[in-house]
Design goal:
The protein contains six helices and five strands; from the N terminus they run βαβαβββαααα. By secondary structure, it is an alpha+beta fold. The chain folds into two domains: 89 residues, Archaeosine Trna-guanine Transglycosylase, Chain: A, domain 4, CATH 2.30.130.40; 86 residues, no CATH class. Strands 1, 2, 3, 4 and 5 form a five-stranded antiparallel β-sheet that branches.
């Protein structure tokens, strides 16, 4: 995810991240939909690592953040920093899923994504960005979600689901509906 860092508080946060391990937490928040931001316990976010980084002459910066894992807020931390800090814990998928079933589900979703990409290329000769290689032996639901443009609140709800099979079923519905619309029209 490319980010433009211009607010002083986030400039300070990025500087601190660069001094340490380049990681920070991202939590989706839309004040129009959700009201003022608060460090609500149990909110789920993404641990992001700063990759490419460029400082602009006026102090702003451009960076690319790469999502690594999910976390859940345990508690907010009162500090003197102008940005939010919190105590977090790892947020993993529920254990006990049959690996064979999961690979089958992943292949099904990847096939739908590929079919949609082919159809979009046929419709729009200017091109659709090629899909990155996706391995069904690894988690793919978040990569599939990133490949299609969806409402950020919907994506946040997907992030909070602790079962990749459920995430893939939801994505399959979206992909199937998009394919149907293209075929109709």
């Amino acid at each position: 995810m490319p980010l433009h860092i211009f607010e002083p508080r986030y400039r300070q946060m990025v500087a601190r991240c660069l001094e340490y391990d380049r990681r920070f937490g991202l939590i989706y928040h839309d004040p129009d939909r959700m009201g003022p931001f608060a460090m609500e316990e149990r909110r789920v976010g993404t641990v992001a690592r700063i990759g490419e980084f460029q400082v602009l002459p006026d102090g702003r910066s451009l960076l690319v953040a790469h999502g690594e894992s999910r976390f859940r807020i345990v508690d907010g931390i009162e500090s003197r920093t102008p940005y939010f800090e919190g105590l977090v814990e790892s947020f993993e998928d529920e254990p006990g899923v049959d690996p064979e079933e999961l690979i089958y589900r992943r292949r099904r979703s990847l096939n739908l994504l590929m079919a949609l990409a082919v159809r979009l290329r046929e419709e729009n000769e200017e091109g659709v960005d090629p899909l990155p290689p996706l391995d069904p032996a690894e988690e793919v639901s978040f990569r599939v979600a990133r490949a299609i443009q969806l409402d950020p609140l919907w994506l946040q709800q997907l992030l909070e689901l602790p079962d990749e099979r459920v995430r893939l079923r939801r994505l399959d519905r979206v992909l199937s509906q998009a394919l149907e619309k293209l075929q109709e029209g």
